[in-house]
Please model this.
Amino acid sequence: MSGFVETLIDRFGPSVVTAGAESPEKYHHDWAGLAPVVPLALVRPRTTEEVSEIMAACHSEGVPVVPQGGLTGISGGAHPVARGIVLSLEKLDRIEGIDTDAGTLIAGAGVVLETAQEAARDKGLFLGIDIGSRGSCQLGGVLATNAGGNTVVRYGMARDHVLGLEVVLADGTVIDGMNTMLKNNAALDLKHLFIGTEGLLGIITRCVLRLHPLPPAKETAFVGCGGTSEVIGLLRTARETLGPMLSSFEVMWPSFFDIMSEGTGLGSPLAGKHGAYVIIEATGFDKEGTRTAVETLLEKAFEDGLVGDGVIANSVKEERALWAVRESPAEYERVLGPVIPFDVGIPIGKMDEAVTRIEAEVHALFPSARTLSYGHIGDSNLHVVINVPEAGQNQPEKEIKACVYGITRDLGGTVSAEHGIGAIKRDYLGYSRSADEIAVMRGIKQVMDPKGILNPGKSFDEGQAA
Model:
């Protein structure tokens, strides 16, 4: 394949194409923790036309293509294959425009999420997608994985923000679906073939995103609850009291909060220990009214015995402090060492059983294990991070995954709530999707990518990942 790489270099130049052995190490893996793989080449196209031409060449030669965005995924969806190229979309980083009348933003796949958020904010508008890696994740990856995040309870998953897409197919065909209208029922809405399918059916190059009016008021509260049942009761009360103002509802069980607050030195805004900790965020268009609504919520929650203690931020600095422990996962390696992360979905009514069973059964397998539970409970998303101290770098992934995913399956949950399947969850997809559903997915893949060159071995694809 060296001749193929040389042909690409001759055509596009070394600023676009780099031989795999000479490519920077950061493109050899994502955050999934898999062993780095040196690709055949790193390709960083500057335009949709270049993406199209590169895909046509790869299709003709049967060369696998792994698309990459900001490399913040934890499921191995952007992990390279040795015999294929890495196609980074990072140079497609232009915001083409914001229509304040229509409430839309048009941008390239390589635009960093935080950049898009700030551009919308400068126009008095709001992009409702928000995840912890906002400063480095890119829009193409966010959409290809149908990312979730902190505001899903109010604004929905990434899919819910997309009006249109431009996509390059496996053979280089460009699908111009850059719809800017909220209503467009002209036959099949093809964009949904590419949102959340991790680059297996096509490569997103541009997007049209829906924006909302920017809420000028935001209130953040941090409370301690007796346990999961009180948290669920608080969620119900928050929805009833705040209505559409409820924008975030994050829970941290003591297994997460105690370890990370101490390990990071961030401490707790509350006195004493609690059975669960919750961050509630409300946004609105009247500062006094929003504050009053949150205060009313907490008063009712105290009266009903749902909350034992709580505080409301009085400044941006205090707001950030209330979020600090929740946004500390980047500190896992320093605080815990190597971890096995999980992103599962559990029906809200079974969340208490899920947390209790997972923490107890992992402890039964490995008594020294540290099992940290937290998540976006308002949208049924539970994150679990596990470390077995004595295992060092050789964490017992097989046994731990069998335990956690088995409990998830038994409770009618999903093995992937917001981070995709990628390479690391492929063997467990059958826990959440039926054989018939997977067969349909593979049938669509065969039609869209008959040579199987797009992101082989990921998610529902039957190809080899390496």
